[in-house]
Design goal:
The structure is a single chain. The chain has 319 residues and is of the alpha/beta class. It has 12 helices and 12 strands. It has helices at residues 15-20, 38-45, 61-64, 89-94, 107-123, 149-160, 174-178, 186-192, 209-215, 232-238, 282-286, 309-316; strands at 2-7, 25-30, 50-53, 72-78, 98-102, 141-145, 164-168, 182-183, 195-198, 220-223, 245-248, 267-268. The relative contact order is 0.12.
């Protein structure tokens, strides 16, 4: 059991899961807002030996070094690699601190969001119609930038609906090619696609002013990454072109945009994460304590968390 556990910001646990935390720490402190600075983060952590955070703050060396009691950091957000993480995992390792995170959660909600918004745009359901008349997804030229788990799920769903799928990734994917998807260089994909999806790891920026020029007018861009996969100023300039549309679920996914950006008629964002569903919240509790029996969950951050259905039902009220 930990002496003190602090969630330095909102971590999206439902009330019953928050109550469950008290089984694993003598004292639990949950902050309801995002710390404004590293100094505030240090103040909140104090003498805690366990810390939880979401994707909205970065815990670097300068924070960890000032909190000598930390034994465990739980990332209630995606952990794809050390390089893209918002925790300095390499430095934490030198201090003997275990850092755990999760991956591949919430992807189905993102696919549902994409289908909902894209269908609305193509048919004019609740928003301006993309073309002069309603069109189906069938035959739509779709480009996927980043064919990881969520990118591939979006590609599969749209291909099932009849879209022509091309993709850009670090290298060609034999399984995608076998499924009828085509690898293209980024410039070619942008020029030839009608709708483009950026599905990138956090802090990976691929689209700048040149790439938006290649994308051109009359196109649609979805960003389903946690953060922006592009230069935000270049995005705003591109949106001045006729017939362009931009979609993202959270406001953070647009990056540092100007005031009034989300009031533009060709910008569409609900301001909430499409992946934060009841089903997707299951792994959030599984990441918390590697001291749980091995048969309950994997303890390596790069592995998916196994399903512990009976525990999940008791904690998340799924019964």
């Amino acid at each position: 059991m930990f002496e003190k556990l602090v969630a330095i910001e909102p971590v999206s646990l439902i009330p019953s899961a928050e109550e469950e935390l008290h089984r694993y720490a003598k004292e639990v402190v949950l902050y309801r807002d995002v710390p404004a600075s590293a100094d505030e983060m240090v103040r909140r952590i104090g003498d805690a030996d366990a810390v939880l955070l979401s994707y909205t703050s970065r815990m670097g060396k300068e924070v960890i070094a000032q909190c000598p009691n930390i034994r465990y950091i739980g990332m209630c957000c995606s952990l794809y690699s050390e390089e893209s993480a918002n925790v300095d995992i390499a430095y934490a390792r030198t201090r003997g601190i275990q850092v755990l995170g999760i991956r591949d959660y919430g992807d189905r909600g993102v696919v549902e969001y994409v289908l909902h918004e894209l269908t609305g745009l193509l048919h004019g359901f609740g928003m301006p119609m993309l073309r002069d008349e309603p069109v189906e997804i069938t035959g739509l030229k779709v480009g996927i930038v980043g064919l990881g788990v969520s990118g591939r799920m979006i590609a599969d769903a749209l291909q099932f609906m009849g879209a022509e799928i091309s993709y850009f990734a670090r290298s060609a994917k034999p399984d995608a090619e076998a499924a009828g998807m085509t690898f293209k260089p980024l410039a070619q994909l942008l020029a030839e696609s009608e709708v483009v999806f950026t599905c990138l790891n956090k802090n990976v920026l691929l689209l700048g002013e040149n790439e938006f020029t290649q994308l051109g007018a009359g196109k649609v861009l979805f960003n389903t990454s946690i953060g922006p996969g592009f230069d935000s100023a270049a995005l705003e300039k591109w949106l001045d072109k006729p017939g362009t549309h931009f979609f993202c679920d959270t406001y953070a996914a647009a990056g540092p945009v100007s005031e009034g950006f989300f009031q533009r008629p060709n910008v569409h964002s609900p301001g909430v994460s499409a992946g934060r569903t009841r089903q997707a919240l299951l792994p959030q509790l599984f990441l918390l304590f590697s001291a749980w029996p091995a048969e309950w969950c994997h303890t390596l951050p790069w592995q998916r968390w196994s399903t512990c259905s009976s525990l999940a039902k008791s904690v998340f009220r799924f019964i």
